[in-house]
Each structure stands twice: as C-alpha cells, then as structure tokens.
Amino acid sequence: MKITRVLGVALAAALAVGTAACTKDSTEGGLPAGGTGPGAIGVDLPRADSDFWNAYASYVPIKANELGAQISNPTNSQNEIQKLISNLDSLVTQGAKALLIAPQDTGAIGPKLDELYRRKIPVITVDTRPDTGNVYMVVRADNKAYGQKACDELGKRMNGTGKVVEFQGALSSINGRERSEAFKQCMTQKFPNIKVFEEPTEWEGSKAQAALETRLSTDPDIKGIYMQAGGVYMDATIQVLKQRNLLVPNTDPRHIFIVSNDGIPQELEAIRKGEIDATVSQPADAYAGYGIYWAKQAMAGVTPKEGPTDHGSVVIKLPNGYEDQLPAPLVTKENVNDPALWGNRKK
After folding, report:
1. Residues 250 and 315 occupy one common structural domain
2. Is pTM beyond 0.90 here?
C-alpha cells in the first residue's frame, strides 16, 4: 500500500524532523491548525496527567500545520468516558467533519462510535483500539508486542528466576489487557521460575506507588518491575526505590531490573543513568502525525488498503474498521542515543 505521494513525502519529513517549527503557509488539504468551525478535524486529548500524553498533545498542532490540516481547539476528556462523549458532541456541533480521539475505556465508547458512523463522521483513534463501534482507522503499535518484549527482556536479565512486580494498566482498556495477557503468556511459557505479582493500577501512578511499597515490604527479594506506562509510573517507582536505597547500578546485587513502555525523554535519560534498564518506545509523534493524516484521508473519502505502508507499518482489516500498526522498538543502553527515537527529538 502506498500513501498519496505528496502527503507521504510531507509526513515522512515531518516525522523525521520531529519538533520542527510549525509552518503557517501550507495550503494543502485545509487551513493551519488551531482553527474552529466547519471542516476542522475535531481533536480530543485523553488526559493531562501523563508525560506521554502531554508529549502527544504538543505534537498534534505541529503535525497539523506540517500536513496543512485544520484542527479544532482540542478538548480533554480527562480519562472519563462520559466527558469524552460530551466533548465529541460539542466538537461535532462546532462543525468537525472527522474526529481524532484516544478513548481510554475501549469497551464503553462503542455505541457512540456507531452513532457517529451513522452520521457519516469518521473517527480515528490513536493508541487504543475500541472493542466495538465503527472506526475509520486505529493508529497504534502492537500492544501484545509490548508485553512480549518486556517479558523477554526481564526474563533474560533475571536469568529466568526471581520475582517481578507488574503494574497493570486499566483492564477496561484494550492496551492494558493486551500488555497484561501477552506478558503473562510469555512468562508462563518461557520463564516458569519467575513469579509475577500482578498489581492493578488503572493507569494511576499513586496506585502503582502504593502497590510497590506494599510488595517490597512483603517480598523484599523483588528483582524485576514491569511498568506498562512509564509516563505515569516512573516517577513513583523511582521515588520508592530511592527511599529504600534500591536505586543502584545493575552491577549491584540489590539492583531491581525495570522494563517500561512509552519511550518518553525521561525514560531514555533514566536508561542512560542506569535507573531503569529498558523501555518499548511508542511513537507519540507518529501517533499525532498519522492520526491527522488518516483524518484527512477519511474526509477525502479514501478507503484504506490492507498491507505494508511506506512508513514502516502494516494496515490490517478489523471487524470494525482498519488499524495502522506502527513499529515500536525496544530501547536499552545500547541504542538509547538513537536519533530516530522520538524521545531523543522531543525538547
């Protein structure tokens, strides 16, 4: 599958530059970002308490300008499904012809998506795949691979034995479910001598902090931590380990191996400092860029095609739409300075 040539070249350049200055003279496909009114892409941000999502939010207007797309002034649903539904109604009333969202409760959003589909308003979701409800495109990385990669890395570093604390994301989200299921399946099959403590956190750092404090009290021989979202868990985790004098180099026998998901700049710096050992980088810049790209395609009436793309991903057909599966590399000390990582371009 090939992206329209002009847009493909523009977006590839945009994603390579990352934080390039916003342009205001683009005329392709609409007006620059920040507008309101008929024809705009309605944007809802899922939350403001995560470094990852704050990075994504900062990329949305940059990519919109680089692609010549008009977007609404973004709303923020603050991780609440009813607020998201209300925000979508408001965006449509203001004249949005397509919607770019990231529903955190992937089960409850289905009926609203079907309503929007009947009204011929295409929806693009980033990072999360709705369980039900028609969508034009889902832009996300393979979240099962997140759990698999984290399991493989921890299992290798722990020599296949010991105890691991897993901070599970909300299981109402397909991302939380897929990461948890893949991590569990991998540990069960590949590393049966590793005991995993599954700690539900609902993507909240305070719950992860409380769970880690309790677990280290009952099981002081913990040797690994899997953080399903570094953007919300890392500060709390580092704080607990510092308080317990456990934030030590991996050459120290007290070291607790940590693998995360997100790829935010703070995680990359923590890898350099030896505070955590690895992360899986999900591309905040590409989520914004290809989310807006597909919104423009939807408004132009283009039907997506299955297969490899010219931006290193694969488009697959879902029962309720399509998904553009973007690559998400494992980052360790060996490749943490790779300039291709979005976290190294984000300032």
Report:
1. no
2. no
